[in-house]
Amino acid sequence: MVTTRQFTKGVVRTMRAMDRAAKQAERQRVAQQQALHRQAHLDASSRAAAEYEEIIGALTGAHRTGLVSRDWRAIATSPPVPDPVRRNDEELAAEARLSAYRAGWMTRVLGREERVRQALQDEIVSARARDDAAHSAQQAAAARRNAEIRTAQRVVERDPDAMVRVLEEHSALGALPFSVEGVDTMFLDGRVIAVVDGLDLEDMPEESITLLKSGKASVKSLQLGRRYEIHRDTICSAAVRVALEFLSVLPIDEVEVLMLTDILDRATGHIEARPVLHLRVAAQAVRALNLARTEAPALVERLGGHKDWSKREGFRALNPAAFGIDLAA
Prior knowledge:
Blueprint: H1 4-60, H2 72-76, H3 89-100, H4 105-109, H5 113-156, H6 160-170, E1 180-188, E2 191-198, E3 207-211, E4 217-221, H7 224-249, E5 254-264, E6 271-282, H8 283-287, H9 296-302, E7 306-310, E8 314-316
Parallel strand pairs: 2-5
Antiparallel strand pairs: 1-2, 3-4, 5-6, 6-7, 7-8
Helix pairs in contact: 3-5, 5-6, 7-9
């Protein structure tokens, strides 16, 4: 027998049990949500640190590539491709199928012979179109090859327009946003000089992001001296990479690189693009270097580059006339 009091107590006990279960479920849900938030925060921190390292690698490691020269002389001495003769193999095969066609008894009974012959006749037209398309493709390929041969001949002869054109078409200079902003090419008494608009100090990161043992990201402002170092490494890396691109694409044994960047003109107080690094690179010398494992400033030093840089002031301007270069010409 259940009295009202017992019933009431039973309800209270049940409600309290349900309340405890609900609170426990809520605590578990909150804990899971917090764990997800912590993991998302850790993932975001890891990504931020990785992205920072990627940016630094792109800025200071553009030179970590190989030197693979294009053999323009072999192309220039290749015989021209004659205009291809049009063939009609597809059309002849289609005509042969039509000539060999003999309608079977069932086809004649069903009155389908005319339709089959018309389909074979239509196939001849289609085959002729395929022969035309193949001939056009062969003509286009021959024209491209002959144009390449003519370009190679001009490049071997060191025609400036041709050399600039192949640099634009075959080098990676246009795909180096973390290295250069622009490149001009000078041809001076047999010298090939790349005048490069390099990145400026303001393009360098202002904060570093590192991943702590706890998994959290540590964001710190970079000291000016450290930014000067990154800027130096970026300019040196870009100079070596531009030299590699020129030596890879052009049939030359040596190239000069003059790097420009915005610096403060202490005489006028204005910020101007000034030369800060001159580098002469010979293909034979660069092939003997371990580009992948050597830092860019060390490469520039080893190759005899010229720069005026200090951790306290960064780059100072060089006089291009000291290297026989007149930027105003």
